[in-house]
Design brief:
Oligomer: single chain
Order of helices and strands: EEEHEEEHHEEEEHEHEHEHEHEHEHEHE
Number of helices: 11
Cofactor: Zn(2+)
GO cellular component, one term: cytosol
Helix content: 25-40%
CATH class of the largest domain: Alpha Beta
CATH topology of the largest domain: Quinone Oxidoreductase, Chain A, domain 1
Strand content: 25-35%
Keywords: Metal-binding, NAD, Oxidoreductase, Zinc
Number of domains: 2
GO biological process, one term: formaldehyde catabolic process
GO molecular function, one term: zinc ion binding
């Protein structure tokens, strides 16, 4: 069948093209996409800082409606509303232990360019197109995914509003609720107020944190954090943000979250905690970059953790997040701005300059 897709043929730019897509096989599911969130990881791949063979279809926060299923698919059926999330094998020891974000074949599955049997399901102008990015490649009108990576959700919630759940909200909210699990009244500092950081702020409020300190360069993002429950706001300047956190909470906070992936900021997050506090790294730094930690900070009992996708089991956690959004307890739609597929390069520009926190790309219904 012919679909429309945003194809990356050169670093930094998308082109809207007609692409031929194969029918679903085995446990694959054909999903008509309604919308896809744009995430920082998409931009890293778009710029080829994360190598992904071009030409390619990116996108990994898709939501849509199942149109057809392969002969071995049994979990979802045509007409189901689904949120697409990261790929995991489901049978390795880590997956079996309920930690699919750390699947032993996660890299191969989430950076796949073809089907597992080596065949290419996407072609444009008679040439193969890489697809399978985070198991979905959802900057398109349709996507082929394995059914285990499609999470069925209730059908009475506007699908486009759920697009951030597949990665960014799952990561930020899951980092707080699944990993840190703060007790009511505890203190937390969140460094970086993009979609992941703001999701962490919302989750901290849900958890009942008594002090929620939000730190960012942009005043507009700080204002949004205040609306999401932040009790204290720090606009980054030439002074140490960690020191400013310590003036607000004597001795430091119980928890700190870094959502920037900037090494110097990651070190600030560690320094903002008290002697037995915990800092959680959710940002994506370049793989070979070193974090300049003061070794003395580690001797008092501090804990440093990292998390992928909020340590979530998407099939369980995403429906919970849908309910929280539906009831107004996790209003992440307020940080989103909608762009049609034809305006995807405009969305990239606005995401880069910080004027849009979470672009949502909507697809044609054809």
């Amino acid at each position: 069948m012919e679909i429309r897709a945003a194809v990356t043929r050169e670093a930094g730019r998308f082109s809207i093209e007609a692409v031929d897509l194969d029918e679903p096989l085995a446990d694959e599911v054909l999903v008509r996409l309604v919308a896809t969130g744009m995430c920082h990881t998409d931009l890293v791949a778009l710029d080829q800082h994360m190598p992904y063979p071009l030409p390619a279809i990116l996108g990994h926060e898709g939501v849509g409606v199942v149109e057809r299923v392969g002969p071995q698919a049994s979990r979802v059926r045509a007409g189901d509303h689904v949120v697409l999330s990261f790929a995991a094998c489901g049978h390795c020891p880590t997956c079996q232990a309920g930690r699919p974000a750390y699947c032993q074949t996660a890299r191969q599955l989430n950076l796949a360019v073809r089907r597992p049997d080596g065949r290419c399901a996407h072609h444009a102008a008679g040439q193969p197109v890489s697809a399978g990015f985070f198991g979905q490649s959802s900057f398109a009108s349709h996507a082929l995914v394995r059914e285990r990576d499609a999470v069925r959700v209730r059908g009475d919630v506007p699908l486009a509003a759920l697009a951030p759940l597949g990665c960014s909200v799952q990561t930020g909210a899951g980092g707080v609720l699944n990993v840190l699990k703060p007790s009511a009244g505890s203190s937390i500092a969140v460094f970086g107020l993009g979609a992941v950081g703001l999701s962490a702020v919302m989750a901290a409020r849900l958890a009942g944190c008594g002090r929620i300190i939000a730190i960012d360069l942009h005043g507009t993002r700080l204002d949004m954090a205040a609306g999401f429950g932040a009790t204290d706001l720090i606009k980054v300047d030439d002074t140490s943000s960690a020191a400013r956190v310590q003036t607000l909470v004597a001795g430091g906070v119980d928890f700190a979250v870094d959502a920037t992936g900037v090494p110097a900021v990651m070190a600030e997050a560690v320094a903002a905690t008290h002697r037995t506090g915990t800092s959680l790294m959710l940002g994506l730094p370049p793989p070979t970059v070193k974090v300049p930690l003061d070794a003395g900070l580690l001797l008092g009992g501090r804990t440093i953790r990292a998390s992928i996708e909020g340590d979530s089991v998407p099939g369980l956690f995403i429906p919970q997040l849908v309910e929280l959004q539906r009831t107004g307890q996790l209003p992440f739609e307020r940080m989103c701005k909608v762009y049609p597929l034809d305006a995807i390069n405009e969305a990239v520009r606005d995401c880069r300059d910080g004027s849009t926190i979470k672009p949502i790309i909507t697809m044609d219904a054809a």
